[in-house]
Amino acid sequence: MNISLTRKQMMSELGVKYVLVLLLYGGVYTPISIGPMSELDKEYQESVISLMGFLMAAAIIGAFELSYTRTNLDDKLQRYLAHFTKFTLYSSILLLIQIAVMAFRDDIVFGIMIMASMPISIALIAYDFWDALRALDGQYD
Which of 2, 78, 110, 117 is the most exposed place for a label (fewest CB within 10 A)? Predict the structure, then answer.
């Protein structure tokens, strides 16, 4: 594949995607998600957290399965659809992590959940950048 897309352009697009993820996460998801989860009865929280675990696993599998190496990066529509799909998956993963963390009202468990969820979030973002660089270099699965 002859890629005319430059690294700088691709990294800029990824940067914009993650700025949008953070804006959506902090500006929309956070105010909406904190109240309802803290008001949910304890007996329902376990079920909600279990369901969120399944949803998060599905989203993470989707995030790793969707690869820029399988995308025609020169085709803007394909590239932007890949960005949009990863945007929705990653913002959903962050929301699910936040809801799970907010379910724990105990300060000790809350801190542990934050420490446990940060590496997952960082790894997903690092993987996305690595996958894009790999696709630009023409290294395929």
Answer: 2
Side-chain-side CA neighbours of 125 within 13 Å: the count stands at: 17
In 10 A of CB 18, how many CB atoms? Answer: 17
Structure tokens at 82: 């890949």
Per-residue pLDDT of the chain (141 residues; tens, 9 = 90+): 445 788 899 999 999 999 998 888 776 666 666 666 667 777 777 787 788 888 888 888 888 888 999 999 999 999 999 999 999 988 888 888 877 777 766 677 777 888 888 888 898 899 999 999 999 988 554
Query: Cβ neighbours of residue 51 under 8 Å, at least 6 residues apart?
Result: none
